[in-house]
Specification:
heterodimer, A: about 675 residues, alpha/beta, Rossmann fold, 3 domains, eight-stranded mixed β-sheet, 23 helices, B: about 325 residues, mainly alpha, MetI-like fold, 13 helices
Chain lengths: ~675, ~325
């Protein structure tokens, strides 16, 4: 079976084939309910899809749409007793998995159907060796003895690209990086040669270059071994690059499915079309404002009566009061929309907001914020009798400036020092060396008293809108607190100002009485923005401010940030790892790697002609939501892992992963030099 | 690991020194004078001169700092001094009783842990079923019932049902294990009940927590038998916090024996403690407090070392 299915190339008639061949795995009318304190939630409501042998099916949707619940239901791994399957069938190898006794189901898990989870950091048992965890499925399902299991484990680690396998089997999960742990998870999944692997957001927790490595590996293995892949993701770029088919889920249902190329070219459901329009894209010129899907997904405790997407749909008609069935369109395609035939053209293109059209003020030459030679070393204790100290160079000689009304993007992968730089600018952290001039005053050297005055002018928006708001304080109290205690406003005046701020960020003023847990992620992030605006700052540090949000909500927040900038003349330091988002918002961009600046340039120059090999690798690794573009690109993944910041490589810190590295790179730290006017790069090879 | 151990042992010194300082000076502040008490109990007329000579004989007339220095010097050379009441060396007084107390404590701990781990685990796995309710009832009772009362109950029950009461004279284990156990098992059960309850509750909440972890889901997704999921994947992780509680409770256990030893008429450390305090025998009290402090710090060290054994992250971290 494996050989015949292996090197199957994707052809346009794939949907014909998948209809001819019996599907390997088919979900029919699956319904899952969760009992919560507030009532019963139908998290999955009549979901059906199927996937053929050797195919890759992507299950796409935003958080809460039921994609992960669907996957866990197939494995019958739902958290009991809260979640229960109330209907439907899961057909695999001619059997209904939902009707099997538990012992037979257990024999299928890990043997015929394997699953890979989102969080590689927590998905492996911290107190067992990698070897023990790898051997488990081998001994349980295949009855191998210890020696056989060990030999197969070594083979498996080699297969997923972990070198020095023999030694690493004796190691524990914490001795592996996130990417390596996900490789181990894949090895565990592959152990018994499964027919299907279900991967639930396998790369969401990983950096973009590592994400590319892992996905390339999975795709390559599925081709070579003929494994069917069910890939659950919210990232449309990943779908475009790796999926043959996709099923789009919304509010517990499949709203559209079909071959990836066709769906991307002409989506038949307004939700799919809206999703595709609301992601900032690297392969297209930057648009003025992002189109967004207004509103929020429905609360599944009380789903709307008709089409569940109708309240947010721009192409809504009276017929949408009735629930549209998921009906067949072209061969192999289905969509659940009354106007599917007219899509996507029936969905109006949202006009760019007028206030966005206002020209931006030219950034001043002097700049509002100037950072010169900023360095931060952290001392970390090491073990041993004397307890010596090692030094992490979190930021090394970082310089940039931000003008009034300008946005500077700070990009890089985890551990590059971008968040440290943000914290230094806010003086949440004391710098080791260097200057941070804000309006001419040095933040790094300011006294406690001066800092208090400065803090009202510099504000911050954090990544996680949930943990950065006090759960015991109402939204109103959170926003009013600095107004009352800092600006000495009266309570009534503060509440009035709070209402105005909430309206400014697009929330009804009544929200002031709510608590963070009563709001959605997007709403909470709006509160975070309102809180930052309360002090009427000139400058805001946005630390991954939109990274935790779903695509459609992310677009809304990005637009809000832009509008506020145009309105209030704010400056942003926008720290993020998503290159497309950074491009959309920033005028100039700084790329960091392992504590050092690699490249700085104007936005368009950086994206059209990136100079530094690291910038190029980053741009290469980010998949674009267009299957045609993606399939034309050669497989590429930056090899290797981020070196330990405790012992960074000599000379150029990037040289260990750089495709252009030569021996001289190890000798000296390349200076940041102006290669083209206004375009600096730190590389001796360009 | 060895250098870590050495560092930890070195760090015990300042802790113990702090305990010594506080105990020494607090004992001198509280009212109660052993000299007067001793002389009065001997009967007869007590003159001021007599008290003064007696104080001078015991060295109580010297400056506090000198007394403290002398005590410290003794501690370092493992000389705990002599009891002010009986005049016998403190080390001897403690020595004859320590064996009994430690035996009861260790027995209580072993029995409790052997009961607590399965009980807590079952309770967690059958959460919100009658199994769980029974275990929770049992453990809540364990927290609520005082050990001495339970001790009396045990004695009375034995008398009422079997017309038998545990022997009153202590027989060392190596002389007659059966005789020894038939005396000491009952106090061990009485103090161990609370211990088992505390540990079982910890094991329960810890297993419930661990069963929600991602790696448990991974293990199930691999097709691991549910029994193995619990024993191999969940328990080892869940026992880590339980060990902390079990260790600290062990130190409390010795304190808890103070009253229970009276109930069972055992001549152990607890009883010695009560006597020493009622006689204001400073030297003996000091030594006993230091002993308990030593047990506490050592238990802490043992817990941390066990963590190192069970949790590789601690070992390599």
């Amino acid at each position: 079976m494996i050989a015949t299915l292996s090197a199957r190339e994707l052809t346009p008639d794939v949907e014909l084939r998948s209809e001819e061949a019996a599907p390997v795995l088919a979900v029919e009318g699956l319904a899952v309910e969760f009992s919560t304190a507030a009532g019963t939630v139908r998290a999955v409501d009549g979901v059906s899809w199927s996937v053929g042998a050797g195919e890759t099916l992507a299950l796409v949707g935003e958080s809460g749409c039921g994609k992960s619940v669907t996957a866990l239901s197939i494995m019958r791994l739902l958290a009991r007793p809260a979640g229960r399957i109330t209907g439907g069938r899961v057909l695999f190898g001619g059997r209904d998995l939902l009707a099997l006794p538990e012992s037979e189901m257990r024999a299928i898990r890990g043997r015929d159907v394997a699953m890979i989870f989102q969080e590689p950091m927590t998905s492996l048992n911290p107190v067992l060796t990698i070897g023990a965890q790898l051997a488990e499925p081998l001994t349980i399902h295949l009855g191998m003895n210890e020696a056989e299991a060990r030999a197969r484990s070594i083979e498996l680690l080699g297969l997923v690209g972990i070198s020095d396998a023999e030694r690493r089997l004796g190691q524990y999960p914490h001795q592996f990086s996130g990417g390596m742990r996900q490789r181990v998870m894949i090895a565990i999944g592959l152990a018994c040669n499964p027919k299907v692997i279900i991967a639930d957001e396998p790369t969401t927790a990983l950096d973009v270059t590592i994400q590319a490595q892992i996905l390339e590996l999975m795709k390559d293995l599925s081709r070579r071994l003929g494994i069917t892949l069910v890939l659950i993701t919210h990232n449309l770029g990943i779908v475009a690059r790796y999926a043959d088919k996709l099923a789009v889920m919304y509010a517990g249902r499949v709203v559209e499915d079909g071959p990836a190329e066709q769906v991307f070219r002409a989506p038949r459901h307004p939700y799919t079309a809206g999703l595709l329009r609301s992601v900032p894209r690297l392969d297209q010129p930057r648009r003025q404002a992002l189109e967004t899907i207004e509103g929020l997904p429905p609360n599944l405790l009380r789903p709307p009566a008709g089409c569940r997407f109708a309240p947010r749909c721009a192409a809504r008609i009276p017929a949408c009061e009735r629930d549209p069935p998921l009906r067949p369109m072209e061969p192999g395609r289905r969509a659940a929309c009354h106007r599917a035939e007219e899509m996507p053209s029936a969905l109006p293109v949202a006009p760019a907001p007028t206030r966005e059209a206002r020209r931006r003020p030219q950034p001043e030459v002097a700049g509002l914020l100037q950072v010169r030679g900023l360095t931060k070393h952290f001392a970390v204790p090491t073990r041993g009798l004397m307890g010596g100290k090692a030094v992490v160079r979190a930021a090394e000689d970082v310089s940039f400036s931000i003008g009034r009304g300008e946005t500077l993007g700070l990009v890089g992968e985890s551990g590059c020092g971008k968040t440290t730089v943000g914290r230094l600018v806010l003086r949440l952290e004391e710098s080791t060396q260097g200057e941070i001039l804000f309006g001419g005053r040095d933040i790094a050297a300011a006294s406690e008293r001066e800092m208090r005055a400065l803090r009202t002018r510099i504000q911050v928006i954090f990544q996680d809108p949930y943990s950065s708001l006090n759960p015991r304080m109402s939204i109103g109290d959170t926003i009013c607190e600095p107004l009352i205690h800092r600006l000495r406003m009266g309570r009534a005046a503060a509440q009035e100002r709070c209402a105005a701020l909430l309206r400014q960020v697009g929330l009804p003023a009544e929200m002031a009485g709510r608590y963070p847990h009563q709001m959605s992620g997007g709403q909470r992030q709006r509160v975070g923005i309102a809180r930052a605006l309360a002090m009427e700052p000139e400058f805001i540090v946005c630390d991954e401010a939109v990274s935790a949000l779903d695509v459609s909500v992310q677009g809304q927040i990005i637009n809000l940030l832009e509008e506020l900038q145009a309105e209030l003349g704010l400056s942003y330091l926008f720290i993020a790892h998503d290159l497309a988002v950074v491009r959309h918002l920033s005028q100039r961009i700084v790329v960091m790697y392992l504590g050092r600046v690699m490249e700085t340039a104007e936005r368009d120059a950086l994206y059209s002609t990136p100079l530094h090999p690291y910038t190029r690798a980053l741009l290469d690794a980010a998949p674009v939501p267009d299957p045609e573009v993606e399939r034309a690109r050669a497989p590429r993944a930056l090899s290797g892992e981020l070196p330990s910041p405790l012992a960074p490589p000599s000379g150029c810190v990037f040289r260990t992963r750089c495709p252009m590295a030569v021996t001289e790179c190890a000798a000296t730290v390349p200076p940041l030099r102006e290669v083209r006017p206004g375009h600096h790069a730190a590389c001796i090879r360009i | 690991m060895l250098s870590y151990l050495a560092r930890r042992i070195a760090l015990m010194v300042p802790t113990l020194l702090g305990v010594a300082l506080i105990t020494f000076f607090m004992l001198r502040v509280v009212p109660g004078d052993i000299v007067e008490m001793k002389l009065r109990s001997d009967g007869g007329y007590v003159t001021q001169e007599l008290i003064a000579t007696e104080r001078a004989r015991l060295g109580l007339d010297r400056p506090l700092v000198t007394q403290f220095a002398e005590w410290m010097q003794g501690l370092v050379t493992l000389d705990l001094g002599t009891s002010m009441w009986t005049g016998r060396p403190v080390a001897e007084e403690i020595g004859v009783r320590l064996g009994l107390t430690m035996q009861v404590a260790v027995m209580a701990a072993i029995i409790s842990i052997l009961i607590a781990i399965p009980l807590g685990t079952l309770s967690a796995l059958f959460r919100d079923t009658w199994v769980d309710y029974l275990v929770r009832l049992f453990t809540i009772a364990g927290l609520a019932v005082p050990a001495f009362w339970l001790g009396m109950l045990i004695i009375l029950t034995l008398l009422a049902l079997f017309h038998w009461s545990p022997p009153v004279t202590y027989t060392p284990f190596w002389q007659s294990p059966l005789e020894n156990l038939s005396q000491l098992i009952w106090p061990a059960l009485a103090v161990g009940y609370r211990y088992a309850a505390v540990v079982a509750r910890m094991v329960r909440s810890s297993i419930i927590e661990v069963m929600k972890e991602d790696y448990i889901r991974t293990a199930r997704a691999k097709g691991v038998f549910e029994r193995l999921v619990v024993t191999r994947h969940a328990m080892r992780n869940a026992l880590l916090p339980a060990i902390t509680v079990a260790g600290l409770e062990f130190a409390f256990l010795i304190g808890g024996l103070v009253v229970t030893e009276q109930v069972f008429n055992l001549n152990g450390i607890g009883r010695l403690f009560v006597e020493a305090v009622s006689r204001s025998d400073f030297i003996l009290i000091q030594a006993l407090v230091m002993l308990l402090a030593l047990v506490f710090v050592t238990m802490n060290l043992v817990i941390d070392m066990l963590y190192g054994v069970l949790d590789p992250r601690v070992r390599h971290g």
